[in-house]
């Protein structure tokens, strides 16, 4: 994949990040992404991202489970092999509710998790470029994609004036590839400590 | 500056004046440090128990379950008692992570990760019992409905035992997915601060390439919320269905409409007791007192006294109905086989009453709810009591049936039944020791999310906000 040029600004407080996101967007820059150590509520709206439709997918998977259970069981017990169980009706809907419910939940949960992994491109052995190692620790890392017209140095200054504690310019791949993280920067030295 | 405001009247959920980095440090420390001697000793004992269990199961398969003391009327004994006991314990984790999430109970963030792990391990233990109880375990796949060459001979979809197959396997799968999806961001945290190549590599695989992108977080939040919404009825359905195993039969003592709510309350009761046992140990051993606070312990003790009392009401209702129905078989089961102290199994009924109904009442006192020793002791007592409950339900209903000539001799387990049970303890604690060493035992990202509203240091500085005028407050802090 082609490499792109990004300007990276790191913030150490979400309360500083929000106004900065607003200013960067008003100034007309395109925010590639903001990497945060936890789910910062409202950040998606501030960045102008649309709502996720993952829950709709979950609903569809759920009703697929419901239909699968009901159609399979009713076909088996009324058409394929009508089993006489103590003279009770072959089409015994109340008795099928537990399994129908369980399959609804199972399909919805498994389907949603797989969809989530697909949409976010998450899987074992997947490697992605990290703009800052502290993005999963305590920094909020705003990444802005450079175009031909972007003056990266100006943009760095602009981010710093809006509260970024660290800024730099990186050329990186956007997508993912198969790989390991063992060549990444080590932030800490090995310490010989024993869990108290 | 605060994005959110929380009243000072609420107890902090995180003690100390911490920043985000300190939270990471505190929770990841046990993973990066060498385990203590205590960990090795505990792990060794757990593995020994597990191996004994494996040997007991090896014998079950080789010689058949005839080596258990099950007899003519007591066809379910320790095995199903232990199954229901473990499944019950496996309810607290999803309750904490799902129902308390929907109820917006902030204190769940400190304990949900470990409680979910406990759930998964407990369900793994529970699953062993029905599987090996099959005897000819190589036929276990017969419980799956698939087009087969035996007719096709389908499973009985009207049978509660089959509902159980679906319920337990769905519950295990969904709990596992819920737990692991929450773990992905935390594995990424461990990965990005790792200082050995092996750790970078392994946690890199486990973290699925998580970066912390805002869009990913947005989807992650949506996923967690929907999984919580799905797990809430699921967790209630699972023990309901386990209770159907009994309630849909016509055995006096089992044929009871009160079973579903009574089993669910009992499951939450025993699950929270097990969470308490583990939490009291974890916070001490790993020094997590700032995250698993006395407030957390007290909240769980409140759940224990509530559910314990619900269970107590159920016991009394059963006794009342045993008399009120004027059915002599029901009356015999409830008033002779169970409640009469000098009947063969009267001891188990009164043991259950003492452990589950009487002793948890101590938690009406705030001092007792906040006492670690009492909490730990009571958590063990409750789990013993809940084991008695399942034993009472199963064995006292079975040992004397409608035909006195088939009344069984006194049922007591053989060493292999006990060994199997001990083996599941080994499995549970082996998994739990590994979890405690290699996984973040507290949800790092979730603690960071609540840190600035419920952390002690941040709450302390909210004085200034409380003094502000309403307009300033709304303007500055309400987002």
Q: Could you walk me through the main structural features you see in this protein, from its secondary elements to its overall organization?
A:
The complex is a heterodimer of chains A (196) and B (479). Chain A has 196 residues and is α+β, with helices and mostly antiparallel strands. Chain A has two domains: 3-51 and 125-178, Alpha-Beta Plaits; 54-119, no CATH class. Chain A has helices at 14-26, 43-46, 54-80, 93-119, 152-161, and strands at residues 3-11, 31-35, 126-128, 140-145, 166-173, 176-178. In chain A, strands 2-4-1-5 form a four-stranded antiparallel β-sheet, with helices on one face. Chain A has a two-stranded antiparallel ribbon with strand order 3-6. The radius of gyration of chain A is 25 Å and the shape is elongated. Chain B is mostly helical and 479 residues long. Chain B contains 19 helices and no strands. Chain B folds into two domains: 1-10 and 455-479, no CATH class; 20-143 and 155-292 and 303-454, Formate dehydrogenase/DMSO reductase fold (Up-down Bundle), CATH 1.20.1630. The longest helix of chain B is centred in the middle third of the chain and has 34 residues, at 214-247. Chain B is globular and about 80 Å long. The interface between A and B is large, with 84 and 87 residues.
């Amino acid at each position: 994949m082609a490499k792109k040029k990004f300007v990276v600004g790191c913030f150490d407080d979400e309360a500083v990040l929000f106004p900065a996101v607003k200013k960067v967007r008003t100034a007309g820059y395109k925010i590639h992404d903001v990497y945060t150590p936890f789910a910062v509520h409202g950040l998606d709206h501030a960045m102008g991202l649309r709502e996720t439709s993952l829950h709709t997918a979950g609903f569809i998977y759920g009703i697929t489970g419901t239909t699968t259970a009901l159609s399979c069981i009713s076909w088996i017990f009324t058409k394929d092999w009508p089993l006489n169980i103590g003279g009770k009706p072959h089409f015994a809907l109340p008795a099928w509710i537990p399994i129908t419910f369980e399959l609804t939940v199972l399909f919805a949960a498994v389907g949603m998790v797989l969809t989530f992994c697909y949409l976010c491109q998450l899987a074992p052995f997947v490697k992605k470029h990290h703009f800052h190692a502290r993005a999963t620790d305590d920094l909020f890392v705003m990444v802005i994609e450079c175009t031909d017209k972007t003056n990266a140095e100006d943009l760095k200054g602009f981010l710093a004036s809006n509260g970024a504690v660290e800024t730099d310019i990186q050329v990186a791949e956007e997508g993912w590839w198969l790989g390991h993280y063992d060549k990444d920067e080590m932030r800490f030295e090995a310490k010989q400590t024993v869990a108290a | 500056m605060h994005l959110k405001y929380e009243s000072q009247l609420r107890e902090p959920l995180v003690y100390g004046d911490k920043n985000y980095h300190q939270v990471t440090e505190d929770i990841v420390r046990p993973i990066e440090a060498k385990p203590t001697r205590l960990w090795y000793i505990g792990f060794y004992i757990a593995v020994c128990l597990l191996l004994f269990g494996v040997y007991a199961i090896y014998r079950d398969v080789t010689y058949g379950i005839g080596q258990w003391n099950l007899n003519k009327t007591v066809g379910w004994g320790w095995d199903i008692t232990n199954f229901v006991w473990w499944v019950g314990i496996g309810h607290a984790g999803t309750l904490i992570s799902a129902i308390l999430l929907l109820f917006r109970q902030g204190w769940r963030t400190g304990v949900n990760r470990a409680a979910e792990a406990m759930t998964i391990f407990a369900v793994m233990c529970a699953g062993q019992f029905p599987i090996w109880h099959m005897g000819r375990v190589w036929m276990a796949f017969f419980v799956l409905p698939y087009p087969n060459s035996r007719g096709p001979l389908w499973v009985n979809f009207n049978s509660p035992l089959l509902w159980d197959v679906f319920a337990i396997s769905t519950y295990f799968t969904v709990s596992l997915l819920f737990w692991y999806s929450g773990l992905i961001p935390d594995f990424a945290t461990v990965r990005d601060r790792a200082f050995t190549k092996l750790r970078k590599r392994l946690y890199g695989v486990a973290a699925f390439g998580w970066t912390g992108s805002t869009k990913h977080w947005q989807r992650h939040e949506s996923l967690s919320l929907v999984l919580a919404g799905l797990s809430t009825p699921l967790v209630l359905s699972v023990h309901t269905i386990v209770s159907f195993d009994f309630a849909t039969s016509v055995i006096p003592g089992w044929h009871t409409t009160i079973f579903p709510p009574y089993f669910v309350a009992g499951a939450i009761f025993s699950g929270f007791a097990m969470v308490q046992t583990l939490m009291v140990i974890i916070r001490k051993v790993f020094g997590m007192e700032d995250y698993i606070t006395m407030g957390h312990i007290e909240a769980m003790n409140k759940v224990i006294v509530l559910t314990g009392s619900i269970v107590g009401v159920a016991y009394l209702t059963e006794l009342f109905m045993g008399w009120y129905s004027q059915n002599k078989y029901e009356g015999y089961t409830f008033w002779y086989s169970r409640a009469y102290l000098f009947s063969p199994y009267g001891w188990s009924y009164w043991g259950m009453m003492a452990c589950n109904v009487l002793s948890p009442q101590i938690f009406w006192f705030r001092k007792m709810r906040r006492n670690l020793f009492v909490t730990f002791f009571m958590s063990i007592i409750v789990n013993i009591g809940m084991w008695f409950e399942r034993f009472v339900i199963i064995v006292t209903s079975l040992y004397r049936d409608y035909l006195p000539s088939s009344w069984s001799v006194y049922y007591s387990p053989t060493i292999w039944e006990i060994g199997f049970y001990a083996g599941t303890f080994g499995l549970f604690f082996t998994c739990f020791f590994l979890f405690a060493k290699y996984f973040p035992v507290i949800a790092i990202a979730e603690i960071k999310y609540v840190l600035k509203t419920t952390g002690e240091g941040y709450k302390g500085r909210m004085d200034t906000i409380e003094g502000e005028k309403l307009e300033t407050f709304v303007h500055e802090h309400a987002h």
